Amino acid sequence: MTFRFTVNGKSRAIETEAERSLLEALREDLGLTGAKYGCGEGQCRACTVLVDGKPVTSCVTPVRAAAGKKITTIEGLAANGKLHLVQQAFIEEGAMQCGYCVPGMILTAVALLESNPHPSEAQIIDAMNGNLCRCCGYPRILAAVRRAGGNHA
Amino acid sequence: MPDKMDAFEPERYELREAPAHEFALSRREFAEFAGAGLLITVTAAVSPAQRGPGRGGGSEPATLGARLHLSEDGTATILTGKVEVGQGSRLEIAMAAAEELRIPLERVRVVMADTELVPNDGITAGSRTTPSTIPAVRRAAAAARELLLKAAIDPESKKKFDYAALARSAGMAAAYKDTLPAGAVVTPVRDWQVLGTPRNRADGREIVTGAHRFPSDIQRPEMLYGSVLRPPAYGAILVSADLTAAQKMQGVTAVREGAFVGCAARTSLAARKAVETIRANAQWERRDHPASDRLFSYLKEKAVQDGQGGRRPRVQSKGSIEQGLGQSGKKVRAAYQVAYIQHAPMEPRAAVAEWREGRLTVWTGTQNPHGVRDQLLQAFHLAPDKVRVIVPDTGGGFGGKHTGEAAIEAARLAKEAGRPVSLRWTRVEEFTWAYFRPAGLFEIEAGLDGEGLITAWDFAVYNAGTAGIESPYRIANTRTRFIYCDSPLREGSYRGIAATANNFARECCMDELAEAAGKDPLEFRLANIENPRLRDVLLAATKRFEWQQRRKSRRPGIGAGLACGTEKGSYVASCAEVEVKNGQLKIREITMAFECGVILNPANLRAQVEGSIIMGLGGALTEEIQFENGRLKNGSFAKYPVPRFRDAPRMDIVLLNRPDLAPAGAGETPIIAVAPAVAGAFFDATGERARSMPVRPIRRT
User: Fold this and answer.
1) Chain B residues within 8 A of A135 when measuring between CB atoms
2) What dotted CATH number matches A85-148?
3) How confident is the model over B485-511, as pLDDT tens digits?
4) Which DSSP letter does residue B647 get?
């Protein structure tokens, strides 16, 4: 079947099985490897992408569920080479060890700040808690989201 | 510093296994291979760990050119066999080179873990990059700098006073071929400009934009995706498999050779579907496999006492344990248990394999690039120059990626398909078929004199391993035994490996001894410590934590505990405050003091300590592999809780800098003091001893 959606501002069409995961379609058919496989069951959110602005776990989202929608992957977040505020904050805070979880972390934080530009510490933790980092770099990731949210504590 | 435990267990950081598969040679390949006269090379490649000086440390490459290149634009390229898995080695190596070359950090490039380009620095393990590879890089860079200075004072080459000119000079070309000068003088700590300053990853932009390609992200032209048929249970042996249906599927390559069965297809989904058709009819012979709910009695039954396979119990004694126990006024006997846990790095094992004209290139996530190259040589009967392993900066290791399973599997599929194949293990595969941190059973008997000093320490360790097995306390009579067991699960390294388990049992027992002596845990330890570095971290942590005040202020359900230890040349002490409410154990705060000699990069050191604390809380509180009938019961993130944002406690970290001491690695040792401090705090809060990791009051069989 053919599925059409907008990915990072461009309309794309892919020919694939309806039950195929959005993650594998993005990575294998469109070469967008920024979204990572971490668990295949929506438990670690390394695969997070934005669908119509909302963070979804693309590993458990079938391609058909994304048809006709606007998808943003980490590759599409910077505008004309200018990093998003959250990306910049991750660099400034050194919020990465191996970095594998970072794309999912950033997109989750972007969605949080879209709906709540100045979240409290508790709101940040609530929003981010589904994202795993096995290097356990949580303190710096929190600092980065705090910074992007305008709280340089 | 000589590593005493090497005498105990020579390959303490490496899982020593032959490749899981060794594939047959075709007639044509055999002719090429035998004709090339390389049969000896192949047999010699069987055990990379036994060869060369590279194990875990920093080998010294033969020439300067093997370590360092200066380019004509003035940038320096450092070549190293170490890998970057998030521990910060790439940055640390770049800092060391920038320091010695006296050039900005931005002008240093580090090429890591490409077996065709870099020297064999051994496996990235055992916290050896800092004490071994960093000095090697510094010496090479200092030697290059000395060449420059020599050129500069030579009147005829005054104009060449820069690295770009030096790079073009005949002198440098000749120097590259020379043996690395032994006497190059490295910059003293007091003059450091780059080392010792806080720096963040230089490639942050690639990470935050998704541009960095991890091993699982590598894509090659015409590449297929692979999937492998796994046994239904541990120990199950494949009796028959029918590939017919899979082979009829469009675009699918299916292969069986021996125990290996796998498929490659245009998409991962198609490859998995093809494997499912084989699984549907595959016949297996099952074996009995023990259940984890009687793991510790099983390990004791399976203790190897007869030296089978060279696995005689290892014993070290000092003084007389019989006399020491006999003279003691008070004795403590206790047994402790440590569960199997899984590393669960964010990126599961992955490899892309590509064959071109008989040469194999594999991009894979491993901590052991040269070792995996040798495994591939063996599995495919290849001459050494026919395999290249490249390790892109990888999504986590923690000691869990010393092996090359995915590389071998991807290469077999790619060989069959005649196209590059990407094989990425699923999370379930990573949980089930990677290896585990060993479980351990500990039996301790210790005695005290009337002053509260330890007179005797009898420490028996089943299965966990020997890292950190020796007590750092001053004890006249000790017996330390390590007893191998037939493990029901595949075991290997882990962050800190056995030092975590050994320190857990030892430090928990120290608390019990303190109680028997009627002393505070801190006071008791201080009375029995002789090592000043260990004393310093313990004093630093307890001072910051305000140990005495907190222990005095009794609050219902709240407790404080502490622990200390040393391993791999660094020293750690921590204090934990916990709350136990409705049977739930919650960590309120961890204070840790850590000392690893002179600090190379305080930002990365702090990140490693923070990461170790939080990762250690997983093993301390929730992580425990459960199995039954040869299958994992909790092999997924849904069933195996690892620390999340909410689980990170308040942390207070004291980094003790010792510019007078050589730097030691720091990625592992902080983890050894987490669980025992939690166990001590649990006792303080509840009055119940926790003698197991994860920490809980009830003892199991």
Assistant:
1) 86, 346, 396, 611, 615
2) 1.10.150.120
3) 999 999 999 999 899 999 999 999 999
4) G
Beta carbon pairs, A and B, within 8 Å: 173
In the CATH scheme, what is the code of domain A2-76? 3.10.20.30
In what side-by-side order are the strands of the sheet with B440-448? B314-318, B477-483, B454-462, B440-448, B330-338, B692-693
Residues B138, B243 share a domain: no
Q: In whole angstroms, what is the distance from residue B496 CA to residue A119 CA?
A: 37
Residues in B 657-686 with any Cβ partner in A closer than 8 A: none
The b/e string for B343-358 (b: 16+ C-beta within 10 A; e otherwise) is bbbbbbbbbbbbbeee
B345 touches A: beta carbon within 8 Å: yes
Do B113 and B195 lie in one domain? The reply is yes
Overall domain count for chain B: 3
pLDDT for the residue numbered B359: 97
Nearest-CA distance from A68 to chain B in Å? 22
What SS3 string covers B343-363?
CCCCCCCEEEEEEECCEEEEE
Same domain, B661 and B677: yes
Residues B454 and B372 in one domain: no
Domain presence at residue B591 = yes
**Interface contact A32-B210, CB threshold 8 A:** yes
Query: Domains of chain A: which residue ranges?
Result: 2-76, 85-148
pLDDT at B178 over 80: no
Weakest mean pLDDT among A82-91, B142-151, B186-195, B560-569: B142-151
**Is there a contact between A102 and B208 if contact means CB atoms under 8 Å apart?**
yes
Quote the CA–CA distance of B351 and B503 in Å, as a whole number: 36
Q: What are phi and psi of B216, to 5 degrees?
A: -75, -10
Residue of A nearest to B86 (CA): A98
Q: Crossing angle, helix B497-517 and helix B521-528, to 10 degrees?
A: 110
The complex scores an ipTM of 0.98
Closest CB to B607 among A33, A128, A137 = A137
Read off the CATH number of the domain in which B106 is found. 3.30.365.10
Contact across the interface for B615 and A37, Cβ inside 8 Å: no
Q: Is the pLDDT of residue B57 over 60?
A: no
Domain limits for position B582: 302-340+436-693
Tell me the longest C-alpha to C-alpha distance in chain B: 82
Residue B106, classed as helix, strand or coil, is helix
Residue B33 within any structural domain of the chain: no
Among A109, B369, A18, CA closest to A3: A18
Q: Of B208, B223, B240, which residue constitutes the final position of a domain?
A: B208
Say if residue B372 is in the same domain as residue B354.
yes
- Determine the distance in angstroms separating the CA of B529 from the nearest CA of chain A, rounded to an integer: 32
Q: What is the largest CA-CA distance in chain A?
A: 50
Give the residue, B157 or B656, on which the prediction is more confident. Answer: B656
Report, as an integer, the average pLDDT of B235-258.
Answer: 97
Q: Which residue of A has its CA nearest to B343?
A: A134
Q: Which residues pair with B654 in a beta bridge?
A: B593
Give the DSSP letter string of B494-545. -TTHHHHHHHHHHHHHHHHHHHHHT--HHHHHHHHB--HHHHHHHHHHHHHH
Whether residue B56 is predicted with pLDDT greater than 60 in this model: the reply is no
Q: How far apart are the first and last CA of chain B?
A: 40
CA distance A39 to chain B (A): 5
- Mean pLDDT over each residue of chain B, to the nearest integer: 90
pLDDT digits (tens, 9 = 90+) for B353-377: 999 999 999 999 999 999 999 999 9
pLDDT at B153 over 80: no
